Amino acid sequence: MIPKTVVEHDQSGLEMVIGAMAELQQTRFIEGIKSKHRTLYEVEQTTEMVRLYQARVNIEARALVRFSETFIRQFATENNKCFETAEVLFGKIRSTIAGLKKIFYKTTPRDYRQLPEGAEVPTVFEKSPISHGEYTPDMFGLDSYPEPVRKLYEALDTLFTTAATSLALCHQMIQEESETRQDIVRLRQIYEESCDELLTTVRAASDFLVQTKELPDNELEKLRQRAGQNRDKFLTEGYHRHHKKELTQFLVIKCVREGQNDGLTDQEALLWPSNHQKALQARQVIEHYDEIEGAEGQEGKLSSTQLVQFIKWSGVEEQKEKEFYTKYFCESYKPDGHYKTLGWNSISAKRKDLREGGFTDAMLAEAFSNKLQTTGIF
After folding, report:
1. Distance CA 125, CA 115 (A)
2. Distance CA 169, CA 160 (A)
3. Which of 40, 57, 103, 199 sees the fewest Cβ atoms within 10 Å?
4. DSSP state of 79
5. What CA–CA distance (Å, rounded) separates 324 from 48?
6. Left (φ > 0), alpha (ψ -120 to 50) or beta: where does 239 sit?
7. Using CA of residue 30, residue 34, residue 38, residue 40, what is the dihedral sign?
């Protein structure tokens, strides 16, 4: 009978390995060394191997902690519906699991007994003396063995502690994900925050900017349609089941459709996803921009100060201000405008100067709003 090294990529697999590592103690460790009749050379080589594993486990542990900080708070993740969360997490601790398999295999004695008919082959995590396997306590303890043996035990103890922490974190994330899916209040908050984060990213939204009248198929949109008016059902079934790109596309489709209903272009819908009235006002302001007092700057160019005021008045997210000015304002103004437009670097520099001069965004927006009142565009 040859024990297997299979670790199921699910919660039970995590629990099995965590449980095996938790049994490490000096007497079990000694049995694991004796059972394979290791020489001092082999012990020292094994210690070096364990230290190599330790370096890899450290790298994975740090990466896993970083991943865990945002995983639960994201409605959509980098994994997609083809992979369960446990599968994704096991991918992130691949070296950890591989190293543990080898260690438990190296400490599992051969067993030539025939298994009873129908019995399942046990794993090395069950058969190894350093975990749940049979062992006989050593009368003299670890202190009676040479120094290399003690060093191997210490290296294993450190490795198991680090690896157990990573596996426990994976286990915790799986449980917290399940609890979050049942906590509709928290789920609503996660969804809103994820939507706000994605919609403020111009590049992500631009990837899915629809150039034709036909909107693309989207699995989240289909889920929304199936859920009907039951928004909570949509959130529960959609949480952690779709890729971030799919959520971004869903949000763009939603923005475009809602914008079209209010008479906005696709570009306007993405620039003002939550304020369609401001989008219509901005469009009207650009059409009459030359009529606003202070529009002209130097040498036949537009005033950079007033442009910054206008941008702040528009209410566009700061991450989208460059896109708003270069792709929306300039392209809308140039055909009929009397003055030359400025490059974005000039606008950005003026924005910085005004801030350093003590002008807040609210003050700049209010200054432009006052000019609109005297002009009477609305």
Report:
1. 17
2. 14
3. 40
4. S
5. 58
6. beta
7. positive
DSSP-assigned letter for residue 78: S
Residue 130's pLDDT band (cuts 50, 70, 90): confident
Q: Tell me the residue ranges of DSSP E strands in 226-372.
A: none
% of residues, the chain, pLDDT over 90: 52
SS3 340: strand
Q: What is the DSSP letter of 325?
A: I
Cα distances (Å, whole numbers) of residue 369 to 215, 364, 376, 378: 36, 9, 11, 11
CA distances from residue 100 to 19, 23, 50, 307 in whole angstroms, order as listed: 13, 14, 9, 62
User: What's the token pair of residue 245?
Assistant: 């790109």
Contact of 99 with 159, CB cutoff 8 Å: yes
pLDDT for 131 equals: 76
For residue 375, give Cα distances in angstroms to 20, 296, 310, 365, 366.
Answer: 77, 15, 14, 15, 14
Residue 108 is classified by DSSP as -
List the beta bridge partners of residue 302. Answer: 296
Average pLDDT of the chain? 86
Alpha-carbon distance 245 to 251, whole Å?
Answer: 10
Q: Give the C-alpha separation, 184 to 25, whole Å.
A: 44
Q: 């003590």: which residue's tokens?
A: 358
Residue 84 one-letter amino acid:
E
133, pLDDT greater than 70: no
Q: Which two tokens stand for residue 91?
A: 């991918």
Contact 168, 18 (CB under 8 A): yes
pLDDT of residue 88: 87
Q: What angle do CA 3, 5, 11 make, to 5 degrees?
A: 125
Distances from the Cα of 90 to the Cα of 97, 116, 176, 351, angstroms: 8, 32, 16, 47
Closest CA to 67 of 79, 55, 56: 79
pLDDT at 80: 54
Token pair, residue 115, equals 């298994």
Enumerate the β-bridge partners of residue 123. Answer: 4
